[in-house]
Design goal:
Length: 443
């Protein structure tokens, strides 16, 4: 059996290693450059590879192709594979064939990293040996090749879900759905929504779907598409049967026979969106039979995620916050919503089809100045030019932070929450967040 892996990043190299271990004839091809550390791993495992090209005769003879999430379906090599009827799957699909252990799959437009890490933290504190994979850390395939865990918590993007056929999580979580990555879905929202719901398509009556009952898109979809999994809703606004809700500033869960309660002010993470993330993680922990005391303790000592509303420094009584992970307007909505002081907002980058209207009321209420940080900022200027008095364009993180400092005064917050992808000026949102932190430390 010939396995061709497209993409020489974390998921690609992990898949190549697992394929090799399972007896496949493996070839890896990357249209860009492969990092040196991955080249070393490929050499150690005796896996042939190429970079900066896709050689068709070495690829179109595959029995199965694993494509990295970053490669769009419209790229020529994927079209050629589809024309030949060759199966193209994601790393999650490929790896799941080689394990019997339970997985918890977590998706959503926002909150999925925090929810995934928080869920993993709860299970670990409850003495379950679960791995953490998907969009985070060491790839799922690589970890299955090493075979050290009794289960996995997986953060799953819509791109990873596009490439599944039989993958079935025991517990699926959908944190929320808002327009994101529409450039990859022909700018059709319904295609993106359908991609997210692929997470539950193979689930059976013995599995669970945990979801935000306040999310209109999710509720509408569930009304018109029957699913087999048992539904576990969570809500900030209403009492839900067989789920988790908030009453009198307390999280209340009636998923199991014993009621679980936790005062919101004891959560280590701040903000309404984090109450939702905590409810989703609690639902999973209860379904996995973690003790109530352990859940409470874990929710109060969780440290949070780097680049997500991360407090960097206070300088001259101005708080600098790194929310570089906010790559769409919905994530930025949560960030602005949690600001309690006048805010200088650093925004911009590669727009993925953003509609800035949803931010308008928050920007009016909270933002005193905007610092644009992107190659093309016209859309932001057009959207907020009449709402915010001061809008400044900058071309580097250092410049953006210096100008933000000049525009802020005691008691303000400087918030990096770009609402855009980072690839015009940075390698990744992590690189953007790190540069922000360095620039703040150098003020």
């Amino acid at each position: 059996m010939r396995l061709v892996v497209l993409g020489g990043g974390e998921s690609g190299v992990g898949t190549a290693i697992l394929g090799k271990k399972k007896g496949y004839d493996v070839f890896l091809s990357d249209f860009g450059k492969i990092k040196n550390n991955y080249k070393e791993v490929l050499a150690l495992n005796d896996i042939t590879w190429e970079e900066e090209k896709h050689t068709e005769e070495l690829i179109l003879n595959a029995d199965v192709v694993m494509k990295s999430p970053g490669i769009p379906d419209k790229s020529p090599i994927i079209k050629a594979l589809h024309e030949k009827g060759i199966s193209v799957i994601s790393e999650i699909e490929f790896a799941s064939e080689f394990t019997e252990v339970e997985t918890i799959g977590i998706t959503g437009s926002n909150g999925k990293t925090t929810t995934t890490m928080l869920t993993h933290h709860l299970l670990k504190q409850g003495s379950l040996n679960f791995g953490l994979a998907g969009n985070i850390g060491k790839s799922f395939a690589w970890q299955i090749a090493e075979n050290k865990h009794e289960g996995y918590v997986l953060e799953l993007s819509s791109f990873q879900l596009d490439g599944i056929k039989s993958y079935r999580p025991h517990i699926a979580v959908i944190t929320n759905i808002s327009p994101d990555h529409l450039d990859r879905y022909e700018y059709k929202y319904e295609l993106y929504v359908a991609a997210k719901f692929r997470i539950t398509m193979n689930q059976t009556e013995s599995d669970f779907l945990v979801y935000d009952a306040d999310d209109e898109i999710i509720s509408k979809w569930l009304e018109s598409n029957p699913i087999k999994a048992q539904k576990i809703p969570f809500s900030l606004t209403k009492v839900v049967e067989g789920g988790i809700y908030v009453k009198n500033d307390t999280i209340i869960s009636n998923i199991t026979n014993e009621e679980f309660t936790m005062p919101i002010n004891e959560l280590s993470l701040e903000g309404k969106h984090n109450v939702k993330n905590a409810m989703a993680a609690t639902a999973v922990a209860q379904l996995m039979r973690i003790r109530k005391e352990t859940i409470r303790e874990s929710l109060s000592n969780f440290q949070g995620v780097e680049h997500r509303l991360e407090k960097v420094l206070k300088i001259q009584n101005v708080q600098y916050i790194n929310d570089s992970k906010a790559t769409n307007t919905n994530a930025t909505f949560f960030a602005l919503d949690s600001m309690n002081t006048p805010t200088v907002w650093i925004v911009g980058g590669v727009d993925k089809g953003n509609d800035y209207d949803e931010l308008m009321s928050l920007v009016r209420e909270k933002v005193k100045a905007i610092v644009c940080l992107g190659v093309d900022n016209q859309k932001i200027i057009n959207a907020f030019g009449n709402v915010v008095d001061v809008i400044v364009e900058t071309a580097s993180m250092q410049e953006a932070v210096k100008i933000a400092q000049k525009l802020s005064e005691k008691g303000d917050t400087v918030l990096l929450s770009p609402a855009c992808a980072s690839f015009d000026l940075f390698e990744s949102y992590e690189d953007r967040g790190k540069q922000f932190k360095i620039a703040v430390q150098n003020l």
